[in-house]
Design a protein that fits this description.
single chain; mainly alpha; Helix Hairpins; 4 helices
Length: about 325
């Protein structure tokens, strides 16, 4: 009997999920895991950068406030220096006036001393003359004095004229003493004022020197604060640039993650479709196997032997 060759049964549109597809799926899952891990790391980095930015912003605000305070502190010594300079100028003018008054009082005192000495000499001479006249008048009379001189006798002076001259000289002497006392008092007052103004000038100069030191210290602190602020601003700019780069990297990874998830969904759909087709092919194969296993009706002639001796299909070819 001639043998009949049977064709293997092929399922339509059957694409099994092979090792390459599974490897690709595993790669996508690995990419997704790495992308998720990288995204988590970037989120932590962004959180750290945000904390650092807040810290830098706070430090920058504190530096700005410190700069404003230092600016006010620097302006205050400058104002004090201006006021101190005006006060020093006034004190110098006052000291100059006091020195001139002191010189005038010394000159007046010297003149009063000279006048007092002159009045004392005049008083002494007047007293001597009065004593002499009284003595001569009481012993010899006025004619004896005139005869001794070779002339006519001089009339006696009125008895009250020496007393009047002595009284006038005493009054002038008293006035001179009072003037001298006033000049001495003015001299002492001017000297005290001069000493007080000199001491006040020295105190103001010391305050001015201290203000200059404070100004220099404030200027140094201002420069340090300005340099610190510049460094913080530079660091803040670098941090902002890093944050922008991290945002760009995050966005890129998010895009890659979305593309990987989309591709994974497509592969999952293809896998599910392949599994469905495989199950369908298995069911059809089971039906075919069952149909082949059923006993065939008896055939006449050589075709029966050929159909019996024909081998059953054992595999399914891939389309």
């Amino acid at each position: 009997m001639p043998k009949t060759k049977l064709r293997p049964y092929t399922l339509p549109n059957f694409r099994p999920c092979g090792p390459k597809s599974m490897t690709r799926l595993w790669k996508i899952q690995g990419w997704e895991h790495r992308a998720a891990s990288r995204s988590q790391d970037l989120r932590l980095l962004l959180a750290d950068q945000a904390v650092e930015i807040r810290d830098l912003t706070g430090r920058l605000d504190r530096a700005s406030r410190q700069r404003d305070v230092m600016r006010d502190d620097n302006d205050h010594p400058l104002r004090e220096m201006a006021l101190a300079g005006s006060e020093i100028h006034q004190l110098q003018s006052r000291i100059h006036d006091l020195e001139r008054d002191l010189e005038d009082s010394q000159t007046a005192r010297a003149a009063a001393d000279v006048s007092l000495d002159r009045l004392r000499d005049e008083l002494r001479l007047t007293q001597e003359e009065v004593v002499t006249n009284d003595y001569v008048g009481s012993t010899h009379g006025g004619s004896a004095l005139g005869s001794a001189r070779g002339g006519s006798p001089a009339p006696n002076p009125p008895p009250s004229s020496p007393d009047v001259a002595l009284a006038q000289l005493s009054e002038e002497l008293q006035d001179t003493k009072e003037s001298l006392e006033r000049a001495s008092a003015g001299h002492d007052y001017a000297l005290e004022e001069f000493v007080r103004m000199t001491r006040l000038r020295d105190e103001i100069r010391a305050k001015l020197a201290d203000s200059e030191l404070q100004r220099d210290k404030a200027a140094t602190e201002w420069a340090d604060a300005k340099r610190t602020q510049t460094e913080l601003e530079s660091k803040l700019r670098r941090t902002s640039d890093k944050l922008k780069e991290a945002d760009a990297t995050t966005a890129k990874l998010q895009d890659q993650l979305s593309a990987a998830q989309t591709q994974q969904q497509q592969l999952i759909l293809e896998r599910d479709r392949g599994l469905s087709e495989r199950d369908l092919a298995r069911r059809r194969l089971a039906l075919v196997t069952a149909a082949v296993s059923d006993p065939l009706p008896p055939l006449s002639g050589p075709s029966q032997a050929a159909s019996v001796s024909a081998p059953l299909p054992t595999c399914i070819s891939r389309s």
